[in-house]
Amino acid sequence: MTTASRKGARTSRKTLDAYALAVRDFVPWAQASGVQLLRPGRRDGGRYLATLQQRPSQGKGKTGRLSAATVAQYVAGARALYRALRWAGATEAQPFDGAFVPADPTPGIVKNPPYMREIDAVLPLCEPRLAALLLLCAHAGLRVNEALGVRQGDLHGHTLTVHGKGGKVRRVPLGARVRAALHDVPPVTADGRYFAWDYGQACYRMKKAFAQAGLAWRGFHAARKHSGTRLYAATRDFTRVGLFLGHASVDTTRRYVAVAEDDVSAEVEGF
């Protein structure tokens, strides 16, 4: 399978893993459902979507069925499979062209809100290297894979060069707290990286620290949302927050910022 996205950017390892999971689900379903993989019917994509929408969630979620986001992820993986098959010249089929995945009615910022007070509660329970990783995500706004890839040579005074999603490079200003945390942990790899952990190892360590603090671990993305929410509160500018987080679209940035319901109370007082 080609690792390039439709826009030409290199697909991340995490996305490829999600696609692989979806393909491992779709192919057995197709075999059991009488679908010829290289010659599927026009409605077979819709049949698979309907199956996913009725599938039990194994105790997770309020509805007892797979969430809309999970369904969308599986369908995206199956679509990617057929893109790869068409690229390889194995088929011209596009069984998912008419398969519409309804949007999740619950905003992501509500389902997985940013950590707020949790960050300062957990930091004292983290050893220095783990604390540096958490601060890179929660204060510098890095994706966890970006943070795990930070090298000593990426630091330039108060600025960090970040090698981000899709091969994009951006420069991120580092606050005093993040700079001090990185200063306290020497690089641990021959190429100057501060972290030798993979994603699973980093999650395991962070989850333990959150458990020690008596807090629920909701992943590194909630830490990234922490930085977006705090920066928006300081700037009131989604564009600047989006540049800081490395988003190509401000629409994406809006999904990372928790805005208080009374955010404009002062502004409308004099209307």
From TrEMBL:
It comes from the Bacteria. GO terms for molecular function: DNA binding. It holds the Pfam family Phage_int_SAM_1. Residues 1-86 form the Core-binding (CB) domain. Residues 109-269 form the Tyr recombinase domain. Gene3D superfamilies: 1.10.150.130, Intergrase catalytic core. Coiled coil: none annotated. The keyword DNA-binding applies. The keyword Chloroplast does not apply. This is Integrase. It comes from Deinococcus cavernae.
